[in-house]
Amino acid sequence: MERTTITLLGTTIDVLDVKGLGTKITQYIAAGVQTKIMYVNTDCMLIAKNDPGYQNVINNANLVYADGIGVVLGARLWGNTLPDRLTAADFMPELCRDFAKQGLRIYLLGAIEGVAEDAAKKLQKKIPNLLISGTHHGYFKQEQCADLIAEINATRPDIILVGFGAPQQEFWIHENSKNLDAKVVWGVGGLFDFLSGKTRRGPKLLLDNGFEWLCRLTTEPKRLWRRYLIGNTRFILYLLWNRFGGGRRNNHAG
Ligand code: UDP
Q1: d(CA 5, ligand 1 centre) in Å
Q2: At what angle do helices 69-77 and 42-50 cross, to 10 degrees?
Q3: Does residue 159 contact residue 107 with C-beta atoms inside 8 Å?
Q4: How many domains are there within the chain?
Q5: pLDDT digits (tens, 9 = 90+) for 181-234
Q6: Does residue 240 form part of some domain?
């Protein structure tokens, strides 16, 4: 399948807006090719910097979108334009409307016990004809994985949303998608926490202007201060070093 991508610090990212993302998913499903969808934000870019294995997993996905203003602005430093940051909590309900129209079955895997189930209920309240094939929490042991995969396959999902956070979900998808019968296996981070209402997202004005990280920081400061305060600073320095300093890396549109 043809892709329009850029490479930022060695990571391949699709040049897509929400509409393009929906269209691409429909095309992949129609083509009958199993599709691995992943996202990258500032945190993911820093993980990729230190872990080539993770970067390789991202670069092996069929579709990678920028979920974070840092990645969009970072690409701009090299003159590459990404249309926008794509945040699943914003676009997933609308996309689910399309999935419902197409009769596609969705499975929600991830988050603590009960959260994916609550997220499913909330989605179905908005979209009554949405087909949810099943839900499962994201805290299982490696030795339970084969049984879980059999259980998921038995529900015949077309699309599996995997919300374990980065980088666990990407490694899990990379290792296990071959055993999953679904057409789309998609890493969605903390999406179920937002859809269920477990985590609040913050005022729209801040979300729309690149400050989602600040809203998240204020809701979960203990867990996220290191990720956002230290992570964002390191990412900016890493970008500037690569753009203007001695660490130039391959960044291009492709
Ligand atoms: N999670 C999970 N299993 C784990 C670790 C985390 O299901 O072993 C879930 C966690 O409950 C949360 C999500 O993964 O719902 C991580 O969310 P986060 O916002 O940190 O994702 P990211 O920002 O990395 O995309």
Answers
A1: 27
A2: 70
A3: yes
A4: 1
A5: 999 999 999 999 999 999 888 888 888 888 888 888 888 898 888 888 888 899
A6: no
